[in-house]
Amino acid sequence: MAELKAEVNLLENAVYMVRDGKLEKLDVPGDGYGKQTITWQAGKPVHYEVSYTKK
């Protein structure tokens, strides 16, 4: 298998998901308090959900 490489900015706060050899930057929660939930199936991330709460 060929080795794939990607670059990320380590000065930026972010969450990334690698799926099928592709790097995807996940959306950040909106204002307030938030969370990101990643759903896995058969050993692979299949989708993610972003939610937030405002106080």
Describe it.
This protein is 0% helix and 49% strand. It contains no helices and 4 strands.
Summary keywords:
55 residues; mainly beta; two-stranded antiparallel sheet; 0% helix
Question: Topology of this structure?
Answer:
Layout: E1 16-19, E2 22-25, E3 33-41, E4 44-53
Antiparallel strand pairs: 1-2, 3-4
Q: Please write the string of helix (H) and strand (E) elements.
A: EEEE
Tell me the total number of β-strands: 4
Low-confidence stretches: none
- In percent terms, what proportion of residues is strand? over 45%
Identify the quaternary structure here.
single chain
**What is the CA-atom radius of gyration, in angstroms?**
14 Å
- Which whole number gives the mean pLDDT? 90
Number of helices: 0
Biggest sheet strand line-up: 1-2
N- and C-termini, Cα separation: 49 Å
Which structural class matches the secondary elements? mainly beta
Largest sheet: 2 strands, antiparallel
Principal-axis shape equals: flat
Which bin fits the share of residues in helices?
A: under 10%
